[in-house]
Amino acid sequence: MNQKCPEAMNTSSDSAPNLTHNDSHKKGGKFLSFFLANEEYGIEILKVQEIIGMMGITRVPRTPTFNRGVINLRGKVIPIIDLRAKFNMPAKEHTEHTCIIVVRTGGIELGIVVDKVSEVLDIPAKDIEDTPSFGINVNTEYIFGIGKSAGHVKLLLDIDTVLSSRETQEVHVAADASSSAQSVA
Length: 185
Known about the structure:
By secondary structure, the protein is of the alpha+beta class. The protein is built from four helices and twelve strands. It has a six-stranded mixed beta sheet with strand order 1-4-7-8-6-5. The protein has a six-stranded mixed beta sheet with strand order 9-2-3-12-11-10. Strand 11 and strand 12 (about 150-155) form a beta hairpin. About 30% of the residues are buried.
């Protein structure tokens, strides 16, 4: 699919049930698919708040390299995570397809930068396989399954575990510090 990043897409649903990691895996469901390099990933649609095009990101000093900084989204300070950096992938220039997916995880909203949003997929439980073992030195806890759709596989991410609890706390502290600094200015 060759499409530009949508202007904005709000997928927030207050009436949607809050599924846990295990419930999602057992039940299957709807996933927003996106690309990093040539690999397709998916995240549970119920975690997605909205999709926005790239905008100016304010860097927060002394934060991990995958923490790109923060944005001001309609008066709300949102921390931005670069999934390429988090997954140790080479950096890439942003294109017209580069997007920020705003998700809710660990009680906070944060944005994840992706190369391109693809589509919303309905993947039934029978088409979600367990994550294979890649050896004891490879941490795959952030992948809760491999989704099969239209003859392709998608790495289905558990967005709640992509960042460790310590990293989530660091991102939250950086966002709070930036928000306080913007309030003073």
